[in-house]
């Protein structure tokens, strides 16, 4: 279905461009048919290549990545981990499960209950590996969608250039239409390059950066939960948070036995 919708939308976009591209007025770098072609054609090409669920997932991942702050997320993660560890070591499983379920990071929400139910460290690490793989795969698919948009935008611009040249050759005897035809030929290439390099590629890099930080946080979570399960101190995890350059939140001082305690006292 998505393939048909993409082809029909692309055909309608090309028809509109052919109908008005050689006669529409333009001022400077503004040419409406070229804008319509470059605004819609890459999107319809991408719709033909991906299912609607994948496109919706890309939109969700992109919104989350644009709202993401690495320093704020790292501080919130450390706070959740120290609170979770405190509740586990004080034998309050209900409260620990509540903290895990309300955590912002997916991996902590999935692995926290395993610690409370006293799964082995090997099981926790195995589940973390699977969860991380699924999370990275989802983000890579979103990055691929934006990569496709970045690739097809110049191609759509080239299509517009060819259409403009065809109109230009057809209307050589009509001097009043040479300008719009030339605008379609040149501006489509310009719009395609701008979209690919100034919009779609930067958005893809935003998702990639978000994915990189999420993987780092997932590894920190896994290491911390293994230490909690083995009733060992979290001092080395605290050092890892400090090495990340984001610092450790003040909440750590409220639970010193969690952040810097010893396994024998737990």
UniProtKB/TrEMBL annotation:
Coiled coil: none annotated. It is a multi-pass membrane protein. The chain crosses the membrane at residues 35-52, 149-169, 181-200. InterPro entries: MotA-like, MotA_ExbB_proton_chnl. Pfam families: MotA_ExbB. It is found in: Cell membrane; Membrane. Residues 114-216 form the MotA/TolQ/ExbB proton channel domain. It comes from the Bacteria. Its main location: membrane. Keywords: Cell membrane, Membrane, Protein transport, Transmembrane, Transmembrane helix, Transport. Belongs to the exbB/tolQ family. This is MotA/TolQ/ExbB proton channel family protein.
């Amino acid at each position: 279905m998505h393939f048909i919708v993409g082809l029909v939308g692309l055909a309608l976009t090309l028809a509109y461009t052919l109908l008005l591209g050689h006669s529409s007025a333009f001022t400077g770098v503004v040419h409406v048919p070229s804008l319509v072609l470059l605004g819609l054609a890459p999107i319809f090409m991408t719709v033909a290549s991906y299912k609607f669920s994948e496109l919706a997932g890309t939109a969700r991942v992109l919104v989350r990545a644009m709202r993401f702050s690495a320093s704020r997320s790292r501080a919130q993660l450390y706070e959740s981990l120290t609170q979770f560890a405190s509740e586990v070591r004080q034998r309050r499983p209900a409260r620990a499960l509540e903290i895990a379920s309300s955590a912002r990071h997916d991996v902590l929400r999935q692995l926290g209950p395993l610690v409370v139910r006293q799964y082995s460290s090997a099981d926790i690490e195995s589940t973390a590996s699977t969860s991380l793989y699924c999370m990275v795969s989802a983000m890579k698919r979103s990055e691929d969608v934006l990569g496709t948009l970045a690739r097809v935008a110049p191609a759509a611009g080239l299509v517009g250039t060819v259409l403009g040249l065809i109109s230009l050759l057809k209307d050589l005897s009509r001097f009043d239409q040479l300008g719009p035809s030339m605008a379609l030929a040149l501006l489509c290439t310009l719009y395609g390059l701008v979209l690919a390099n100034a919009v779609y590629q930067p958005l893809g890099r935003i998702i990639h950066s978000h994915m990189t930080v999420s993987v780092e946080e997932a590894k920190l979570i896994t290491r911390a939960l293994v230490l909690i399960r083995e009733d060992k101190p979290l001092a080395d995890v605290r050092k890892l948070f400090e090495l990340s350059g984001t610092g450790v939140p003040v909440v750590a001082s409220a639970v010193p036995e969690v952040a810097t305690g010893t396994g024998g006292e737990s």
